[in-house]
Amino acid sequence: MKKSNNKYPIHQSPFYKVNSHKSLAKILFVEPRTVKKILKRGGKNYYFSKLPESERPLEIPKSQLKRVHARINNLFSRIEDPSYLNSGVKGRSNVKNARNHLGEKALVKIDIKSFYPSTTVDMVEKCFIKTFRCSKDVAETLSKLCCVNGHLPTGSPISQSLAFYVNVSIFNHLSIYSKARQIDFSVYVDDMTFSGKVIPRSFVSYVTSYINKSRGYKCHKIRTYNASTPKVVTGAVIVSDALKVKYSQQTKITKLLSCLDENVKKYDVHSFELVRYFQVLIGHLFSAGQINGRYYQKGKKMVEYRKKLGIKLPKQSA
Question: Does residue 71 fall inside a structural domain?
Fold first, then answer.
């Protein structure tokens, strides 16, 4: 693992061996009474909604709790990251995750079903006790601060990093287990990817069984590819030693570009519809641009065009 100057091992984390609520409050940049108030409000600390496309529940922490979650997440981001982790780490991405598996290799993808809802408050408490060595009462408080309705929230800045640390021992074991069998392993949130010259069925069975026995998670969307088949990995397509943009994303970009002039004429520059249109278009272009530089250049031109029109995106000054 390559160490960064601003990263430290987990035993140097401010959370390591915290044994008093006074110390915890100081770490979180809040008063002890504020922690008590947040805990007392329980579910009232959240906005409840649903993801529009999937109808999956969405729990978004309100401002005060969100600041606490952001602080916890910030401290987690300073801990040294294992090389197999490609989500929530600066300089790594879904594209880097796919690049780790380039080549004429067999490949298996395994997802953990309902990752955040299945990561319970008890699992989070045990994480702070066993991984961070906090006292039981502090670990219980942290677990209640980080969870809603008994599990990790789906709309919080803390969920991705905390879900990883709840399961870091499992992922570390799978990394060692894979390496011993000449199999490359990577993780992107709840997507696990394995590639190698040969991946036996017994290997896949072991992984899914181990995860279930260790944490009770169920695995799904298990997909196997032979060495010569194009492989879709975390939003990118592996074709031998090359990475390509998914056809569905190419089609989406083409469709968005085709209605550019129409939308510019139809909507006012301050309208939600036009702002949202440029958000989506530019987002898709830069996402594809991580794989194909042509899309990146097109994204830069589209940003300049947006500025020229006087369209300001949220939290942007230009």
Answer: yes
Please report the pLDDT score of residue 54 as a whole number: 67
Residue 109 in domain: no
Question: Looking at residue 312, what is its pLDDT?
Answer: 84
Distance between CA atoms of residues 14 and 233, nearest Å: 35
C-alpha span between 130 and 136 (Å, rounded): 10
3-state secondary structure of 191: strand
Identify the segments of the chain with pLDDT beneath 50: 1-4, 316-318
**Maximal CA-CA distance, the chain:** 61
**What does the alpha-carbon distance between residue 279 and residue 303 come to, in Å, rounded to a whole number?**
10
Q: Are residues 21 and 159 in the same domain?
A: yes
Q: How far apart are CA 195 and CA 80, in angstroms?
A: 24
| Amino acid residing at 228 | S
SS3 call for 226 = coil
With b for 16 or more beta-carbon neighbours within 10 A and e for fewer, the 232-267 pattern comes to: bbbbbbbeeeebbbeeebeeebeebeeeeeebbeeb
Domain extent, residue 54, equals 10-93+119-166
Residue 109: C-alpha distances to residues 89, 101, 141, 205, 219 (Å): 21, 11, 35, 13, 10
Q: Which residues of 119-128 are buried (b: 16+ CB within 10 A; e: fewer)?
A: bbbebbbebb
- Helices 136-146, 63-76: inter-axial angle, 10-degree rounding: 120
What one-letter code names the amino acid at 63?
A: S
pLDDT tens for each residue of 216-261: 999 999 999 999 999 999 999 999 999 999 999 999 999 999 999 9
Q: What's the total number of domains in the chain?
A: 2
Helix (H) / strand (E) containing 315: none
> DSSP of 253-269, one letter per residue?
HHHHHHTHHHHHHHS-T
Query: What pLDDT is stored for residue 318 in this prediction?
Result: 40
pTM of the model: 0.88
